[in-house]
Design a protein that fits this description.
Elements lengths: L4 H5 L3 H9 L9 H12 L5 H14 L6 E2 L13 H4 L7 E2 H14 L4 H14 L6 E2 L1 H7 L16 E2 H17 L4 H14 L9 H7 L18 H15 L3 H14 L6 E3 L10 H7 L6 E3 H15 L3 H14 L7 E2 L16 H5 L6 E2 L1 H12 L1
Antiparallel strand pairs: 1-2, 3-4, 5-6, 7-8
InterPro entries: EF-hand-dom_pair (IPR011992), EF_Hand_1_Ca_BS (IPR018247), EF_hand_dom (IPR002048)
GO molecular function, one term: calcium ion binding
Organism: Stieleria varia
Amino acid sequence: MRHPIATARTISSFILLPLLLALPHPQRADAQIIDQQRSKLAALVLVQEDLKNATKTMTIFDRNEDGVIDETEQAKLSWRKDMADYDVDRDGKLTHLEVALGFAQRRINAGVEQEDINNANIYLRRHDQNKNGQLDPDEITASGWPDEPQEFDQNGDGIITLSEMAERFAFMKGLRREMGIEKVDQVTAIRTVRQFDLDGDKKLDETEQKAAGLPKPGEQFDENEDGKLEIIEIATMLGKHRKETGMSKSDLARLRSLFESLDLDKDGVIVLNQFPDSAPFVTQLKEFDENKNGEVTRDEVQNLLIRQRKEKGYNDDQYAEAKRLMLRHDQNQNTWIDASELFAKPSEGQLAAETMRVADTDGDNRITLDELARYLATKSK
């Protein structure tokens, strides 16, 4: 029998829940515990890497190709002791889906998200010269990446696997968030160093910092007091500046993208006469040109973005939550929420009928996406 790979790839949490609930109800004293475990498994969201790892595991351990890893075949599984946690139907065997659930749970426990896996794949493609799906000791030495291999190599075998890379990236991401650094701050810092680091030391000295047009004095963020700014120090600066000015993550990304694509000579200034008036972005550039001198500086773009963000009255996260609630409540899909789509007795995750009175700021008896985002922003204060 072939492994049910194609079927498993289509499974999401909304399919998994009824599957788990339909399983035979245990008659033992620990029935309640088992039901709780099933509920936790039903809440798991599988990503492609979970299914890929499950496929690899099935290929290696399901030697008789009957579609399950039975008790005999489980003997060599490194996580055999945890098998019962993922054996949903308690038959002593592991299916492709149950193995995938095991990988998903361990991934989530490590804080690994899809973006961490994507980043790991980028570095793997860049440095895995023999294409065996891992970084071998000679590849690490030859490429010089990572700078501190021991921080990635969890089991100390000299090899860095995709999972070890993803887990390290997830750990560093969590550390940066504790410092107030978001992904956009980190990416902008990396690209800034890449563009303005003329001497190739992966840092910006005072001259390079001036050329980069950083928003704050460098000495305030030079933690090791070497007169230069590393990527993490620049990212910290950008995160602090973004929060102080009220810029959202998307605002900073827009600022970065604008100058990366339109600042042709990379001096921190976009010159309008370098583009034909017919170009679709020229009208927007003229909006940014505050003093109407035909040049757009970073400060001018930033100032307008800050004003626009204040006028909107909400950030990226609040807007994303508003989109989610709009999708849930806008039953007739007319792009707004009317009174009939609100709830007199709301459950968790539902908007109450009284929301109309507060959120409908223009009094047209409907809640638009912008109004809902502003309402959520007001609630969070």
